[in-house]
Every structure is written in C-alpha cells, then in structure tokens.
Write a structure and sequence with these properties.
alpha+beta; Arc Repressor Mutant, subunit A; Chorismate lyase; six-stranded antiparallel β-sheet; two-stranded antiparallel sheet; WH_DNA-bd_sf; WH-like_DNA-bd_sf; DNA-binding
Length: 239
C-alpha cells in the first residue's frame, strides 16, 4: 500500500494532468483536503510539496496553491525530488536494487557529515538505481542510528526511502548538496557497468531536521551519460 501522502499527491496530480484543474485554478485549502482525505496536515503538506517540486503548482502566502502551466521536468537542486518521482515525471522507468543494509561504524568523513563521534554506529544503505533498466546511480546513504533503524524492516527495492522516513515521522527541513567529479572505483565500475576510473558525477547530500541537526549523509555517484543536473540562479537586486 502506498503512503498516504503519495496517494494524495498522485490523485491531485492526475486531476491536474487530466485538466480537472486548469492553469491558474486554486486547489482546495489544506483544511478542506484534510477533511476530504481524513488525514492530518502533514501528509497534505508533503503531497503539495511534491507537486510544487515537480513544478505543477505554486504557492503564495495566505492563499491556496494554484496550478501552473506544465513544463518539462528536470533534476534540479533548487528543491529535492526523490529519484523515482523525478524519473517518472521525466518519462523514464526507475528501478531499485538494494545491495546492502548494514549497521556499521562511522569513519572520519561520515562522522563529520553526521556530526557524530568517529566510530559511532550508523545505518548504511547501498542501492543501485536504474533508468529504463540501465544502471544510472550508485547510492550510498548513511543515517544516524535512530533515523535509520526502521530501514531494516523496509523493502527499499519496492519503495522510496524518503517517503518511508516521512511516514515514520522524520522531518526533512533542508538539504545541502556538494557536487564534484570522481573516478569510478572497483565497486562503482561493477555496479554501474563502466570501466574502472571512468568519470562519474558525485553528489554528497546532507539532510537536516528542523533543528538543523543532520540525520542523513549520502554519497551518490551518477553516470553522466544517464543523468544531468540543472541549477537556476536569479539576479540580485543589488549591483
């Protein structure tokens, strides 16, 4: 069964795509959606966040969300869209293959990223992500022990880790992204079906809770022939 916020997101998205809501139309207020779906405010806000991240709606303070003109989706760092959701909106078929879920000790880099003592226990999930069956991303996600403990009971091949964590009460308040290039090591090469030392795009991503505490530190390595990123800037009013 899909998480409630995912069901709400998919239902509203279908109404937008089918033309039930047209560009410029207001969606019902959050309180109306809460009553309609018999849920608390959290799943409604997460569903609206997903729609906004996809570019289907926009919001202004004190007003219900409005439908914007649809556009071609792209993987952007302006907001976080889970890999599977981005792939589907781009017309690609996502796939997941979990290579390992383990409890291990944090080395120096991971400990620094999660603001833990070196040697503290963490949960690490390593997954191969595919697009239309082609290896695209080797994802190494490291979580603080309290955040990641529930992942031992979760089937990461069949669902979104982000959606699962939201459903168990984890709040994603902000993320920091660091991009660089890296040569594929043996593990990367085997999983992504590329030569050793082939160039990869690496994204190191840190997720923070509302108190500014990091709970996820990921090292994601993308094949550049499969995935690109876009970053949009706006001109400051100051010259």
């Amino acid at each position: 069964m899909s998480p409630r916020h995912q069901e709400i997101y998919q239902a509203i998205r279908a109404q937008i795509v089918d033309g039930d809501y047209k560009p410029g139309d207001e969606l019902p207020p959050e309180t109306v959606l809460m009553e309609e779906w018999k849920v608390s405010r959290g799943p409604i806000r997460q569903a609206l966040y997903n729609l906004r991240s996809e570019g289907l709606i926009y919001t202004t303070r004190g007003r219900p969300a409005r439908v914007r003109r649809p556009h071609q989706p792209t993987q952007t760092l302006a907001s976080f869209t889970p890999f599977s959701q981005w792939a589907l909106t781009s017309g690609r078929e996502p796939g997941n293959h979990t290579l390992s879920v383990s409890r291990r000790r944090a080395d120096g880099e991971i400990a620094d990223g999660l603001q833990l003592d070196e040697g503290a226990f963490i949960v690490e999930v390593v997954r191969l992500r595919t697009l239309d069956g082609v290896p695209a991303l080797l994802e190494r996600s490291r979580f603080t022990l309290d955040t990641g403990q529930s992942l031992f009971e979760f089937d990461a091949d069949k669902g979104s880790i982000t959606d699962h964590l939201v459903d168990v009460g984890v709040e994603f308040a902000s993320m920091r992204h660091e991009l660089d290039a890296i040569a594929a090591d043996g593990t990367d090469a085997e999983a992504l079906q590329i030569p050793v030392a082939a160039p990869l795009l690496r994204e190191r991503r840190t997720s923070f809770d509302p108190q500014g505490k990091p709970f996820e530190y990921s090292d994601d390595r993308y094949r550049p022939d499969q995935v690109t990123f876009s970053i949009m800037n706006t001109m400051s009013g100051e010259r």
